[in-house]
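Worked Example 4.2. Consider the chain below.
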Amino acid sequence: MKCCGKERGDAYCSTCGKQLFKPNSIVGLLSYLRTQESQAEKKLRIQEARYAEYTDELSIHQEGRRETHLGKLRRTFEKWSLWANYVEAAIARSDDP
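Applying the procedure from the previous section yields the following structure tokens:
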């Protein structure tokens, strides 16, 4: 939602303090999903960077665990992203006349 010339993702504008949407609305759900998506992406990127540092030193067993762990983080990120995209599309369809 736009306020004060910028796109805002929170329930309140950080510049003027205006309430942009009710916290229990569908837009509030979208904001929550985007926050979860962002956190999942951050965790994935951090772990990818950590594992990249030790790639040469990993045994076959550790390599398998790394791929399993990164796969789980990727699926979590994709899940949040997909849900957020669906909610965003639903909002866009409801705004169309």
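The mean pLDDT is 84. Strands lie at 2-3, 6-7. Compare this with Example 4.1 before moving on.
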